[in-house]
Amino acid sequence: MYIELTGSLLYIARMARPKKFTREAILDKAIPIFWRFGLAGTNVQQLEAATGVNKSGLYSEFESKDDIFVAALRRYLETGPALRILGGLPQGFGNIEQFLLLAPSFSDDYAGCLLINASRDVALLPDPAISLISEFNEKRMAAIRSNVEAALPPEQVDAVCDLVWTFFAGICIDANLHPDVAAHRIRVSAFMRLLVNGLATTPAAA
Fold it and tell me: What are the DNA-binding region positions (predicted)?
């Protein structure tokens, strides 16, 4: 009876013990691991080391490694600067330039864009991750379009939106290979001069 009661009390004590981690903290520390190694290249041991939470703790919050990845991707998209920058007023090329300058990352742990990196392995991603990427890409392109529409006549909008998106994807990939902030700023400035001087020929683009 004593042993049974003692075991029950220990179980209750363990259940009542507060967690030493939060879901958000796990995701913030997992993002650089997925960013660097991708979903397929990341294992649970790496996530344990990065987060300081053991496997049982991770799986008390998430169902699987895929679930951690999807949650990390969602947190990255929700906290990233892209939509906030592109949603600024007034709309126009100023927002496009800030987006191109600030959306790609150049830190040691974060190079380029997690979304672009993940898209390269789309065949290996779980369906919820693919849905997240597709939905966010649609929102981001709509935000780009809104700014381009404020700067250019309708007949130029589609081509310029595609050009901005292609340039963004390219500089994100380049950031993985050559994380040079100064060179990045020079490229963005040259690209924006092309848009403003080469295409913005109407009063609306001023």
Answer: 43-62
